[in-house]
Amino acid sequence: MQPPSQPDRNIALELIRVTEAAAIAAARWAGRGDKMAADGAAVDAMRIVLGAVEMDGIVVIGEGEKDEAPMLYNGELIGNGRPPQVDVAVDPIDGTTLTAMGRNGAISVIALSDKGSMFNPGPVVYMKKVAVGPRGRGAVDINASATDNLKELALRLKKPVQELGVVILDRPRHDDLVAEVREAGARVLSITDGDVAGAIATGWPNSGADVLFGIGGTPEGVIAAAALKGLGGEIQGVLYPRNDAERVASEALGYDFTRVLHTNDLVAGDNCFFAATAITDGDFLRGVRFHDFGATTQSLVVRSQSGTVRTIETFHRHDKLQEFTTAGF
């Protein structure tokens, strides 16, 4: 009789050290009105801690191209170079404006999956999205109208449309969408930034969010797919060109603006990991707290293969934080 096999290493539990570092560094700048300083501190902290993670990773979604982002740029090799080989998506701050203004909803996130399994947005910055939690999976269609999707979702969730919470980024491009959702009778949960957190909220109990609609970042859509895959939810997206020049250039590279990208198209397979640490208070995590002891963080850790979802509260001693001042603490 063979001994029972051991579960694979859960890298996500190691990745929270990465998001914790970035969140604490960014929280130092929360409410100080400087987006660039906050983002720079988070990037520096995240990159240094990533270097100690046992993996052979490549950044598929980072802070931009090498010339634009000297750290955590697309194509950068990270980790200590040992197996496993993985694709990595990072967003040191999802909600830089929220952080700078001291508003709720900013998080630091990282997603990881098998090498070659993560969709590379390339030059396509935006995509049209619809995201739901586990109970709404299969009830929405990105090619259907918002009204029809809300009716179908209400039937699936067994509650009236009037009780549905719809997350939509507050942008002029969504004015007609907001009007339609309100005409259908649903409640609009308007967010100014942070649509990764908005997508996750649809799969989080008691967040009040049932579905996310609208046009947002393509990189954020991939990161949200990794989270929702573990949470049991669903995201659909269609690439959205900002102008004709972007469409032509992207189509020349093979990007298809008519194809519906489902969760498994954005992150293939069933071996992805997601970690997030709150910078400021949000729907499902409390933001960084500084106190005499040091700092306290709350994080979310999701693994798709096992279907485990963990919330972790961590206390960071002040004297230990001081040892990592070079990492942006």
Report on the architecture of this protein:
- The protein is α+β, with helices and mostly antiparallel strands and 329 residues long.
- 30% of the residues lie in helices and 26% in strands.
- The chain contains 10 helices and 13 strands.
- The strands form 2 sheets. Strands 1, 2, 3, 4, 10, 11, 12 and 13 form an 8-stranded mixed β-sheet that branches. The chain has a 5-stranded mixed β-sheet with strand order 7-6-8-5-9, sandwiched between helices.
- Helix 1 runs antiparallel to helix 2, helix 4 crosses helix 5 and helix 6 packs parallel to helix 7.
- The N terminus and C terminus are likely disordered.
What's a concise summary of this model?
This protein has 329 residues and is of the alpha+beta class. It is built from 10 helices and 13 strands. α5 links the parallel β6 and β7.
Helix run count: 10
Low-confidence stretches: 1-7, 325-329
What is the succession of H and E elements? HHEEEHEEHEHEHEHEHHEEEEH
Question: Would you report the number of β strands?
Answer: 13
Radius of gyration over all CA atoms, rounded? 19 Å
Give the overall shape, derived from the CA principal axes. Answer: globular
- The share of residues in extended strands comes to 25-35%
The mean pLDDT is 90
What percentage of residues falls in helices of 4 or more residues?
25-40%
